[in-house]
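---------- Forwarded message ----------

FYI, see the L-ornithine N(alpha)-acyltransferase record below. Original note from H. follows.
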Amino acid sequence: MSNNRLSVKIAQSQDDIEAVQRLRFDVFFNEYQAQAYTDSHADGLDRDMFDEHCAHLMVVDNSQDGRVVATTRLLLSARKPADVPYIAASEFSIPLLGEKTGNYMEVGRSCVHKDYRDGNAIQLLWRGITKFVFAYDIDFLFGCASFHETDADKIATELSYLYHRHLGEGKTLARALEHMPMDRVPADQIDDKSAMASLPPLIKAYLQLGGVVGDGVALDDQFNTLDIMMTVEIAKVPQTYVKFFKKQADRLEMTP
């Protein structure tokens, strides 16, 4: 899918993977000052053990010689080795994974270059994500989503809004392992419109698909973020959205 200037594709070569890892390093480590705990980041690339097991989506700027300007990675249950854990499981207890039924896809390491945060790049990423949803008949889409903040009190309204209005239940109710409460502001004191507007774009995208949030927020002291768990049960996505995204996915010229 393309808007002429930007297009989304799947990373195919080692050069593609390194371009994705370079963007992640630029955003997470240079811009947001994440801590490089290992020498795996010494060459200006953000890489870890999960990369080799994931599909990597990349948005490129065709007017800048194919420069990678946004990325996310997808860990699919259909392609994941049994001994490789889900990434979010290091921060959250995820009930639906214990059922071992259905097809799952974890979304992670999403980032957009600071010059491309007008909404177009992340929209293209989500079109790529939905291509995988339909191609692999995904039942549950999930992943950590982050606030670039380490003090939960500074985002008390946003966390409370998510808790009171979008909390999961049953198998979609993940729980933070090192639990910090999200319920910080009484429900009747929250301006829903204002709270929604102040959420990070990735969280908004999950909510627009009918996504729900887990209970509790987790501190990621390496990336200087507060993480929440988002889950989308595809069967509960409104049909108007399903039809729209199916149409967009069918127009996307890539094969997952």
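H. also flagged this: The two ends are 13 Å apart (CA to CA).
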